Amino acid sequence: MCEVICVDDAVERIEDGAVVMIGGFMGSGTPPRLIDALVRQKKSDLTIISNDTAKPGIGIGKLIDAGLVRKVVTSHIGTNPITQKLMIAEELDVELVPQGTLAERIRAGGFGLGGVLTRTGVGTLAAEGETTLEVDGETYVLAKPLRADVALINAKLTDYLGNLTYSLTARNFNPLMAMAADKVFAEAEAIVPVGTLAPDVIATPHVLVDYLVSKEACHG
Amino acid sequence: MDNKVLIAKRIAQELKSGDLVNLGIGMPTLVASYLPKDLEVFFQSENGIIGMSMLPHPGLEDFDLTDAGGNPIGAVPGAAGFDSGFSFGLIRGGHLDVTVLGGLQVDERGYLANWMVPGKMVPGMGGAMDLVAGAKKVIVAMTHTAKGAPKIVKECSLPLTAERRVDLIVTEMAVITPTADGLVLSEVAPGTSVEDVLAATEASLIIPDAVGEMKVAA
After folding, report:
1. Is pLDDT above 90 for A219?
2. A202: left (phi > 0), else alpha (psi -120 to 50), else beta?
3. What ipTM does this complex have?
């Protein structure tokens, strides 16, 4: 059963130095209030696992702007010149992973798999230092599972229990990440009564959600 | 005709009705603007949709519906949405008929390099490695040279995107078909000679007896 809490109380539960998965693709599907609270509370030394670092001032780009990130595991930083600058200056550790492999590593982490074999990256820099295996004459790269201390999830709708639905391309990595972290924080565009979401549209069942961010601001 | 338009129009001829197609950001995206009217293809965006379309009208932007560059898009009737794992399952699993990507270099083996220039530009591979490894047909859309230097080279000096022979290279000068025997010069652009192409290409090209001309509508 998830706990309904205000956004600042939620983020107080995240420690400096945490490994944090954050849903979203170029900011679409990234939980805006949780990101803003991370910046307000100056949670630092974070390792972020996310598809990209968006742009300065947008989504995960805000964490980069604020200098809160020590490392990112991501598929693309080309749209964020600050991420690139920090990487070149060796102030930010960037681990680049092919996008489909990143998704599978997160899925493996959440689905209890020891890894996934993929043809993606064979013979490229992405396979350097990685284990390769031959199966029926085909070479594959072993993509190892990824897990996080915390996942920050952005949903379209949630009910009071924490059942989540997603919208269009804002879905992206969110349902995968909701499986792959020790503590899952969900923020939704709208909160609706239990029973109004049809079971078939629920993409993330409430048992996966630990904290549901309420609409109200925190007091005191 | 603008070089990019020529390339886009020529690549549009490669698509067939019913194809599931992924267009990379930049020049490849232009291909969607030059499809024959009677052609029905479905565009995938790797951030999680089949059936993306141009934004039908300014003012209808919704941040929940964007392309892989984060730009607002529309969706056609019958569009379907899914998560990133499923999206790349489509790509790697042999369900994607065609991918059109930009290129920095293609070599005599038909191998593509398009995701980084060490020490200068390290944007990350995004979905490119999965797309090139997984799509049934890989089409490279690029200018023939960069600042005068050939981009079709003997062997890629830049990091490879995949150890896979791409299926077609379309530039403003030529259409080149990588084969097991090497790069075949299939077509030259209007006003371009075979010698012009050879002069702008570092890789060896196989020249058939009859080289066609790139034919696109004005």
Report:
1. no
2. beta
3. 0.96
